[in-house]
Amino acid sequence: MNEYQGKRILVTGGTGSIGSEIVRQLLTKGVEQVRVFARDEGKHATLQSSIGHDKRLRFLIGDVRDKERLMLAMEGVDIVFHAAAMKHVDICERNPFEAVKTNIIGTQNIIECAYALDVKKVIGISTDKAAGPTNVMGTTKLMAERLLLSSYFYKGNKRTTFSCVRFGNVLWSRGSVLPLFTEQIQSGKPLTLTDPSMTRFFMSIPQAVSLVFRAASLMKERELFVLKMPAARMGDTVAALEELMKEQGYIKKAAPVHIKGAREGDRMHEILLTAEESEKAFETKDMYIVTPNYEAGVRPKNLEYPGGKPARRGGYTSNSTAPLSVEELKNLLREGLHAHLGA
């Protein structure tokens, strides 16, 4: 609460699944003002309608590619949550120049505006696709991470600090496959599954955002916070969703499943933390904290985190994590399914 009391905060991508939940949770933390920065006026209107009138909210149309607009939006801000991104693997694969403009150049614009306006903190939202990337989206998000964390070397005497938070798939977000699966199951169309043995990390939107706030309160300078998440096989995820929809009366029988194979840029198992990153990481109950590279000549002060201990060496991957059972997946999916179909 003290972290945000009386503060002015900008959320880029503030109408998206993660951004809008950041906005909602900020309104419970005693903030003076929250600026919602996004380019789609329709999504602004939807979020404004769902939250209702709150005099602390400002809805700002803008794109992180537009540095001049971003500079105006960030004026007088204390903290920035940078959630704006192109995040669909297949779309980024077919539109790589656009992914660079948003994910890389847009992030550089955030950094330069934050330094120019003396913002206190910037927290970038990243993805497991950035760990050992195999596609355009992951590569651009890794570059966004590197820009945020290496911006230290342009810092001079400015007070601005930067950190990143990396997590896997967020259930029922706009980038999630679950809404598509639900639609296919309801319509009786074949459910298009890449590969039932693929594994993915999963977390609910409120869980992910709560840990983003925890990371923001722990950050000192240039950390990468990697949130621990449960993992599941995609075949089990589909089975759990179909069983849940039958139990709740949304369907009478399961849809046929069509195995279409991996898309370009897809990988069988996700990586949240590489083996190399683990060598300079701390570990707590709910996250890994990758600290700055000491060999770069800068050793941060007071490298201590509550409950933190040196991380065990080795990568943190979705196939090395005990998978959720179908029953556990049903419990995880239940609330989101009700909200999605009841909307």
Element layout with pairings:
Layout: E1 8-12, H1 17-26, E2 33-38, H2 41-51, E3 57-61, H3 67-74, E4 79-82, H4 89-94, H5 96-116, E5 121-127, H6 136-150, E6 161-167, E7 169-171, H7 178-187, E8 191-193, E9 199-204, H8 205-218, E10 224-227, E11 231-233, H9 234-247, E12 257-259, E13 271-273, H10 275-278, E14 281-283, E15 287-290, E16 309-310, E17 316-317, H11 326-342
Parallel strand pairs: 1-2, 1-4, 2-3, 4-5, 5-6, 6-10, 7-9, 8-12
Antiparallel strand pairs: 9-11, 10-15, 13-17, 14-15, 14-16
Helix pairs in contact: 1-8, 3-5, 5-6, 9-11
Detailed description of the structure:
The chain is of the alpha/beta class. The protein has a domain at about 10-170 and about 200-230 and about 270-315: Rossmann fold (3-Layer(aba) Sandwich), CATH 3.40.50. It has helices at about 15-25, 40-50, 65-75, 90-95, 95-115, 135-150, 180-185, 205-220, 235-245, 275-280, 325-340; strands spanning about 10, 35-40, 55-60, 80, 120-125, 160-165, 170, 190-195, 200-205, 225, 230-235, 255-260, 270-275, 280-285, 285-290, 310, 315. α2 links the parallel β2 (about 35-40) and β3 (about 55-60). α3 (about 65-75) runs parallel beside α5, α5 (about 95-115) packs parallel to α6 and α9 crosses α11 (about 325-340). The longest helix has 21 residues, at about 95-115. The chain starts with 7 loop residues before the first strand and ends with a helix. The mean pLDDT is about 90.
